[in-house]
Amino acid sequence: MRIYTRSGDKGTTSLVYGVRVPKNDIRVEAYGTCDEANSFIGFAVSFLQDKSFQEKEKIVKIFHEIQTILFHVGAELSTPEGKEVAWKLEERHVKTLEGYIDELDAKLQPLSNFILPGGHPAGAALHTARTIVRRGERCVVSIENLNPAVVQYLNRLSDFLFVAARYVNSVFQIEEQHLHQE
Predict the structure, then answer these.
(1) What is the three-class DSSP state of 22?
(2) Percent of the chain surpassing pLDDT 90
């Protein structure tokens, strides 16, 4: 099987069921942005692979689960309105993320001020993934009649990535940089 098809050479691409749309269609922008976030999550995880900390296997498993669910988000976004979605997001996916947020947040010092994104390379990559997810969320809200769980999941995912970035930085004993008041 060849990786190139030449079918997009004129600026269109196929959604699920073969529906052709321009490459700048909001659905393509939305699932492309989610794919970008997914890649950045993978980038963050790559910084954790050679590090040793108590809950490494557990946190890496969570990230891999989230990456899989982001493919489900992509399936929803690339399915034209009115067609059957192969991997439909459900409220349970949102609830699972909320559980992960609560679990990691309980291990952190409460926030008293805004923090600057950065820290350990994994933490910095998670902050970047968070901003990409926010961009994806802004795209998704423009799509009519979309499963509401998609917007909810992306909203919660950005919260999770923020908490996960803080968690990773704390594991590696990187002090958070607070916003300076001028």
Answers:
(1) strand
(2) 80
CATH number of 12-171: 1.20.1200.10
pLDDT in tens, 4-33: 888 778 889 988 988 899 999 999 999 999
How many Å is the Cα radius of gyration of the chain?
18
pLDDT of 53 reads 80
Helices (H), 14-172: 26-48, 56-77, 91-105, 121-140, 148-171
Q: Is residue 55 predicted with pLDDT exceeding 90?
A: no
> Where are the chain's structural domains?
12-171
Residues 6+ positions from 74 with CB-CB distance below 8 Å: 31, 34, 35
